[in-house]
């Protein structure tokens, strides 16, 4: 059995009724709650893709009402909150780089050729 003590808890794609985050203790990712969270995240990302298509259609028509724009804005905001939560959760489970970005010797501007040193 693998030791999961060095991993951070997983941020789940739902909150408590009070709006607080829910976490799952580290595991191998095959348990019921992990699989449920994976499915929920997939559904949330799929819903975001559909909402993007709806937004493109509504905005392309250029005949929207203020109410339609308001509803679209609310739905886009909610979708953005959800997809941001999924990204945070998945990003937290990625292994970190083997080095700190500031310590990368390849990023030293003094080592760059003269024509690349002052590029914006």
Write the layout of secondary structure elements.
Elements: E1 10-15, E2 21-24, H1 32-61, H2 66-92
Antiparallel strand pairs: 1-2
Helix pairs in contact: 1-2
Description:
The protein has 120 residues and is mainly alpha-helical. The chain has two helices and two strands. It has a two-stranded antiparallel sheet with strand order 1-2. A hairpin with a 5-residue loop joins strand 1 and strand 2 (21-24). Helix 1 runs antiparallel to helix 2. The mean pLDDT is 83.
State the main characteristics.
120 residues, mainly alpha, two-stranded antiparallel sheet, 2 strands
Task: Tell me, rounded to a whole number, the average pLDDT.
Answer: 83
Q: What's the total count of β strands?
A: 2
Topology as H/E string?
EEHH
Query: How far apart are the termini?
Result: 50 Å
Q: For the largest sheet, list the strands in their spatial order.
A: 1-2
User: How big is the Rg?
Assistant: 21 Å
